[in-house]
Amino acid sequence: MTTKVAGRKMYFAGGWVKRDQVIEVRDPQDNSIIDTVPAASAEDMLKCIEEAKKGAKIAAAMPVHERISIINKAADYIEANKEKYARTIAREGSKTIREAGKEVIRCIQTLRISAEEARRVHGETIPFDQMPGSENRVGYYQRVPIGIIGAITPFNDPLNLVAHKVGPAIASGNAIIVKPATVTPLSALLLAEAFSEAGIPPKILSVITGYGSEIGDVLVTHPAIRMISFTGGLEAGEEIARKAGLKKISMELGSNSPVIVLEDADLEEAVESTVSGAFWAAGQNCLGVQRIYVQESIMNQFETAFVKRTNQYNIGDKQSELTDMGPLITEKEAIRVEKLVNEAIEKGAALLAGGKRHGAFYSPTVLKNIPEECAIAKEEIFGPVVLFYPFSDIDKAIEKSNNVNYGLQAGIFTKNIDKAQKAIAKMDVGGIMINDSSDYRIDAMPFGGVKKSGLGREGIKFSIHEMTEPKVVCFKLSNC
């Protein structure tokens, strides 16, 4: 039997359009078809960029109070339709309905903060008379929009991570073209719906659905696109960087985040926080806890409590309020995680919990005694798997934490301020959470990493800085 679906349109320069070629959007829980979206062509993307050129001029000329009003109205629309947004996130992606509801709330906050930051796109006066011979010059610089932003967004936060690009772009007077993840485009289209209902002028915002192989390169390489904002995997990020040409690039490329647990930590708090951090959104989270370094004196106690809490996780129907964890985004991804775990076990790792796959579901998994040569010990797992390592000395734990190619965020649990400060100083990451897991973020903070975890910083204020550039103004005065 063929499932009948309505077929969603994509948001093309301010209008809703359909195409004969479509992409099926499926629920990873049972592989059922939820809806279809247009499969845009390279020609579609080229036309969209031409429209965005006009949109960039409209956006730059839009008064700040109008930008603020539109962004706040979009947030109001989402707030009034929270259940629809949450159900869509939970249906097309991996998140449970409880996780999806929290993402909707964060999206609303992201837009509210974007509206506030639109007021604060400031410049500064410049004392030109610091240079001899320039006593009769005065001036300043102002920050101006760069033009058109190309945004490529992932499946794991299909609404809020789109808002993290759209909100700052509009707040700072740019046009933006979003290419959402092929497997989760519906949430991005709902964000476009909110801005459409809010009255955003045509041509400023587009959400173009399609395959990356067809439209991605056009967006990335086109000279009219002045910035690419990408969130996704390392390999894709490196490919974009090679192709992009002379334009700004902002990238968040993931991690394999470490957490250090010292013997003076609040054990119950550390266990609860790291379990949640490891298995939120089925572990498909760039901030997710992947490596836990536990001081030897408390290792047995921590391990027992962590495994007990892991085994209590309720795995199943994403739409149920009782479910703690749903499936991975596709069965293919679950098989990939399964292979990583099996390789580690074959090479000597000990399985403490989980290790079972059923379709796209993979049970929360805990490993210890992991050989260093295993891929799972070095790379981002992006699945519900966490690795245990004992340590005796904090310096060794920090050294091992840093001994990877990533550095997004980290966590440390301790009541000792000196040891916390040592970790702050020596851990090579973009952010460190004290008495919390690596999986903590607010939408106003500068967010990003070092090494292969990315380039630049997100967080509304910091994204706006990336999406604008300084223009210097100098007056030469004749009578002063």
Automatic annotation (TrEMBL):
Residues 16-473 form the Aldehyde dehydrogenase domain. The keyword Cytoplasm does not apply. InterPro entries: Ald_DH/histidinol_DH, Ald_DH_C, Ald_DH_N, Aldehyde_DH_dom, ALDH-related_metabolic_enz. Keywords: Oxidoreductase. Coiled coil: none annotated. It comes from the Bacteria. It holds the Pfam family Aldedh. PANTHER family: ALDEHYDE DEHYDROGENASE (PTHR42991:SF1). Belongs to the aldehyde dehydrogenase family. This is Aldehyde dehydrogenase family protein.
